[in-house]
Amino acid sequence: MRLLAPYHQDDLLPTLAEELPPDWADAIITADLPAGGDGWERLAPIYAAVADAVADAQVSPTVVSGCCCVSLGTLAGLQRAGIDPAVVWIDAHGDVQTMETSASGYLGGMPLRVMAGYRPDLVADEIGLRPVQEDRLVLVDARDLDEPEAAYLETARIRRTSLAGLDESALPDGPLLLHIDLDVIDPTDLPGLRFPADAGPSAAQAVEAVRRVQATGRVAAFDVAATWDPAAPDPGGARRSIAAELLDHDASWAGATLDWR
């Protein structure tokens, strides 16, 4: 099941589908957003719709969006389907900010912290998301951390590893939600990123690491945040090429039955 939620926060990205393989999505998920309310209240209908689609999937779904926060809906959908996954979070950033520590207030810097149980009243309760124990969260290649994130991670039980070190020995037991924010890739390989972070792996290295996790046969859902600005130039079609390789559904993991219930 291939799902596209074409949003960055509450901004609909109508051209995001054009940078994916032709006719890639089985379903495009949109939602009616409330006119008022704070950021999380506006975003909750998107994540609830994603959760519904994932929970109804009969095979391991892939979810593509323009924002890491959509992964909250992916996780909630797996939990609703009776699956209790660990989370492998590949990202150049920590995404463990809070409303109280974030200097910018950018919600896209918080989803992994929400998964770990931070303030469920914000959005988790609304979409039926249960917290994941910290030691079942794996943060991969986060090299651009704000001070509050670094301080939290010093004492948190969240596992950390490099992309090169991401193999079966680095993974928790059981089913996995595999998430990749494509800004983990060095910006020289991937143009137009909203939040580029230098000194990252190549696109080929990122795809190889994803394949190693998929090869375990334990990926219950694959969540991809294409965190580039679709309006930004894409010389030589680099973004399309990377998306096509990453979303190649000839990989052996794709279509596996959700049999971890």
Automatic annotation (TrEMBL):
GO CC aspect terms: cytoplasm
Native source organism of the sequence: Nocardioides luteus
Record-level Gene Ontology MF annotations: arginase activity; manganese ion binding
Keyword Magnesium recorded: no
Tree of life domain: Bacteria
One Pfam family per UniProt: Arginase
Protein name: Arginase
PROSITE patterns named among the record's database cross-references: ARGINASE_2 (PS51409)
Keywords attached to this entry: Hydrolase, Manganese, Metal-binding
Matches recorded under InterPro entries: Ureohydrolase (IPR006035), Ureohydrolase_dom_sf (IPR023696)
Family: Belongs to the arginase family.
